[in-house]
Amino acid sequence: MSSNVSAKHPTSEGVLIIGAGIAGLTLAQALRRHGVPCTVFERDEFPEVRNQGWGVSIHSTLITWEAHILPEIYDRVCEAQVNPAIGPDEVRGVPWINGATGQVEQSVPESKRLRLRRDGIRRALMEGLNIKWGKRLVNIEKFKGGIRAEFTDGSTVLGNALVGADGSTSIVRKFLAPTTHKLHRLPINAVGCALTMSEEQVNYFKDHVDPLYFMGTHPETDTFCQGAGSGSDIY
């Protein structure tokens, strides 16, 4: 990363956010609400190039989201609730079941919480943002008063600051911490799978456990499970 860059550059694109995942888009929406110019750069060629995974629970950060994201964007985010019958303002806990008996043994304390589809959150957070697709970062150069980012397609942009939101294999992190950027991997393996259930089975959990979200473990196999969804989609 060089510091000998001339100040003769194109017009600044504000804060440069590398990565159009949920974190990068959330930051961009917060900057947008507070009037800070920004541009998001994503290595994928288009939004639907990859599966966005299952669901995500948001609870302790909801107050922050409401305070720093435009109301219309927050409303769109809430529409991604995995079970539309559950209102965004409901207060609820998270039951923990015994995987052998199906009985609820304890519960996470009640609070306002959302269980959202990742793809739905991402679509909502994209609205109104300046996102440039097919931009894979290859170099960062600092200079007095700004930063220059270079991409594999040969294009370069100037910004006031640069934020890395490009995941666990972050290229930005490699530039910022060239000797310490590698992840520390824990000696733990996890295998996840989805279980297809009948409507009757789904309704049992909705009626007797929780219609939005639950977790549990099996005392003999040490298997962890979680349930989340409306019964018609995979989360």
TrEMBL record:
GO terms for molecular function: FAD binding; monooxygenase activity. SUPFAM superfamilies: FAD/NAD(P)-binding domain. It comes from the Eukaryota. The keyword Lyase does not apply. Residues 15-179 form the FAD-binding domain. Its cofactor is FAD. Keywords: FAD, Flavoprotein, Monooxygenase, Oxidoreductase. The keyword Thylakoid does not apply. Pfam families: FAD_binding_3. This is FAD-binding domain-containing protein. It comes from Aspergillus glaucus CBS 516.65.
